[in-house]
Amino acid sequence: MESSWPDTAAGAPAVTPGVPGEAEQPEPELVEVEVGSTALLQCGPSRAQGNLSHVEWFAVHKEKPTLVFSVHQGRGQSAPGEYQHRLSLQDQGPTLALAHVTPHDERIFLCRGGHPRSQGHRIQLRVYKAPEEPSIQANTVGISVGRSEPEEVATCVGRNGYPLPQVVWYKNGRPLKEQKDRVLVQSSQTVESSGLYTLRSVLKAQLLKEDKDSRFYCELNYRLPSGSYMKESSKVTVPVFYPAEKVWLEVQPEGVLKEGDRVQIRCVADGNPPPHFSINKQNSSTMDMEEEPTDDDGVLVLEPARKEHSGWYECVGLDLDTMTSLSDRQELLVHGVPDVRVRPESPEGREGGSLNLTCEAESDDALEFQWLREKTGEVLEEGPELRLHHLNREAGGGYLCVVSVPHVPGLNSTRLVHVAVSGPPWVALKETRMRVRENAVLNLSCEASGHPRPTISWNVGGQASEQAQGAQSVLSVLTVLVTPELLQTGAECVASNPLGRNTTTIVLELDSNRTTGLTAFTVSPHTRTNHTSAEKKLPEPQSKGVVIAAVTVCLLLLALLGAVLYFLYKKGRLPCGRSGKQEITLPPSRKSEFVVEVKSDKLPEELGLLQGSNGDQRAPGDQGEKYIDLRH
User: Fold this and answer.
1) 221: Cβ contacts below 8 Å, ≥ 6 apart
2) How far apart, in whole angstroms, are the C-alpha atoms of residue 632 and residue 619?
3) Which residues of the chain have pLDDT under 50?
4) What global pTM score does this model have?
5) Alpha helices (H) along 446-543
C-alpha cells in the first residue's frame, strides 16, 4: 500500500504570519538541508542585499515571530533562547548560518533590514533525514487458508526518518495493493524526542496454498535534498496451513530392488501439516491389510530386504482436524537371490576320463549361468552345463557356478564344487641322489598325491611321521642314522592307494671330503610346488682352493704368534726363557697341574663337537681336542 502526506514544500502560495498588519506575502524562499548539517539563510536575493548595516532575524512559530538574531554595523548578536548558540554570520555578511539542524528547525525564518515598515524576506527551511534500514518480522505461528478475514503476514518498521517515509509491500517482487477483505495495510507512526519519525506498517492478507513459498518484503521511499531514494527489507516466508489433497508411497532406493538391499518406505502428502500416517501390508493369506511397525520418523525400514517382503503396501493419511482420510497403494517387488545347486554334488572322475557338471537354479526371472575355475578365475563355460574331457590331476580342484539375473544389477548367487580326479599315487621323481656323511642323522621327506589320498611307507627302519597336505596330498618324514648298510641299500619311499602304487628311490652317496663324525641334518628328495615334488640335493663339498687358503691363513697366524713370543723373550718378560735357572712360579697346589692345550686347526663343522640325534653333547675326549700333559 502507498501512503502519502501533504507536501508543504510545493503548492499554491500560502499566507505566512509576519509582523502584525502585514498584507499577504509572496511564497517564501525554500532552503533544504539534512539533519545535523548547517543551513545558510540569506536575507533576500544577492542582487538586492546591498549594504545592510542593520538586520533583524525572526523565527516564526505558530504565527508568532520571535527575534533570534540581530546585526548592527556588520556585527551579529544572538538573542537569548533556543538558537542562542547555533546562529552566526557567514563571512561577516548578510548570510545567517544555522548549525546542527534538527527536525524542530523546520519553520519560516524572517529577516528585515533598513526601514521599520519594510516588508522583509521570508525563508522556509525544510529538514530531511534518511530512515534506517527497515526491519521485518514475519508471522511465525502460521496462517490457515480459507479464513474469512485477512490475517497478519508481517510487520515492517522504519526508524529515525524525517519526514515520514512511504511504505510499499511486495510479494514475490510485485507490489501489493489494498483489496477489500483480501489485502490490508495498517500503518502507524511515532515521533521520537529528537523529532524523527518511526514508522510501523502491518500487512494483513488472506493467503492461499500457492503462497506457501511466497516471499514478502517492504520498501521505504523517502526524499533528501539530493533526490528521492528507497530502502528494502529482507525477504521472509510465512507458514501456510492447508489440508492434504492426496497421499502417496515413496520407496528408496528407486528402481529394481533385490534381496539384501536396505529399503525404506515412507508416506508423503501434499498438506501442511501432514496428516497422521500409517503403513499397512497385505497379508498374502487373508488378503487383509495389516499395519507395519515404523521408526520414530514414520519410515518402514526393510533391512535386509527379502523376497517375502514383496507384496502390496498401503499408506493411510488421517487429518485429525477434519477426521478425513486419504490412502494410496503400491506393489513392492523384491527380486530374490536364486538358490543354486550343482549335480553331482561331489563329482569324481578317473584319470583320462570325462565328467559333466550341471548347474541348476529356480527363479521367476530369466537367469544367466557361468562356470569359472576357482583358483584362477578363468571363465570356462557360458551356460548351465560344464563338460570336462581327458581328465588329469591338474583338473582336480574347485569350480564355481555363478547364476545372475541380467536385468537386476548385482543380483547373483554362487555355488562352489570340488572335483576329485582319481588315479594311482603320483610322485615327483623316480630316483634322486644326495651326498651325506656317515653317522649323520637324516630327515628324509617324501610327498605324494592322488585320489584317494595315498599312504606312504619306507623300506628302511627309522622314526616316520605323516601329515596331510590338502585333500589329495600327504607328506612323510623319516628320521634315520647314516650307516654303511644304509649307504649300500639307500631308501625307498612307497606311496599307495586302492588304485595303485608308486615309488621314489633315494640313493645316498658318502661325502669323502668330510670328517667322519656323528651329526644331524635334514635331506628332502623333493619339495612341494602346487602339490608336486622336486629334488633338493645337499651342498657340494668345498673346493680345494678354499681349503688351501684356510691352511695358509693358519700358518700365517702361527708365524705371527712366534714373532710375538720372541719379542717378549728378548725384552726379558719371559722368565722361563732364561738360562734355565729360574723356575716358573706357581702355587704349590698348581705346580703339578700345568697343562698345555693344543687345539686342532680344523673348521668347526669338521670337529666332533656335534649333538647326537637325542641332543646330548659328547665328552671332550670325543670332540677331537688334543691335550699334552706336562706334569710328567
Assistant:
1) 165, 166, 167, 168, 228, 229, 230
2) 24
3) 1-22, 47, 515-523, 525-544, 546, 576-632
4) 0.54
5) 484-489
